[in-house]
Amino acid sequence: MKEGAKKNKAVFLDRDGVINRETGNYVFKPEDFDLNEGVFDALAMLRDRGFMLIVISNQGGIARGLYTHSHVRKIHDILNKKLSVQSISLTEIYYCPHYPATGRCLCRKPGSILLEKAIARFNIDPAMSWMIGDKETDIEAARRSGVKGILVKPNDSLMDYMNIIIPRQ
Length: 169
Ligand SMILES: [Mg+2]
Ligand SMILES: [Zn+2]
Known about the structure:
The structure is a single chain. The chain has helices at residues 39-48, 69-85, 113-121, 136-144, 162-165; strands at 9-13, 51-58, 92-96, 130-133, 148-151. It is of the alpha/beta class. It has one domain (9-161): Rossmann fold, CATH 3.40.50.1000. The protein has a five-stranded parallel sheet with strand order 3-2-1-4-5, sandwiched between helices. Helix 4 links the parallel strand 4 and strand 5 (148-151). It is globular. The model has no long low-confidence stretch (mean pLDDT 96). Residues 96, 98, 105, 107-108 line the site of zinc ion. Residues 14, 16-18, 22, 134-135 line the site of magnesium ion.
């Protein structure tokens, strides 16, 4: 990269409890995948401010044999389709399929490997970027990668937090 080349900024988003309803169980069936209130408006605001939108999700149910990569892909197809109707696109969706009891990995949050992968691949400046999550592990992953964290209440409207990222004029 040339010195002084402009870096991108991003908002990293946890999935369950932030984008879609945290049900208390793994969400892998389309009928359980409900978007939270305010998600279209918030993501459109961030898009309009020039942020890349990148999902970082733990999907340990795969390692536990409860569902498969293909279930996750199907859910993400549904998500991308719903967003594209609103002219919102996610730069990438990263997920960790592992679970501590069945094998250690570095990508499961609070690990920061997935964030760091995205930061390198998309030339992102972590200091200009944010991670929105509903668990302390999301915020810890953010901290480890130099990204600012915003802890939200599960299933809250993201609109309630936009003034943190986009200060009111
Ligand atoms: Mg969550
Ligand atoms: Zn992993």
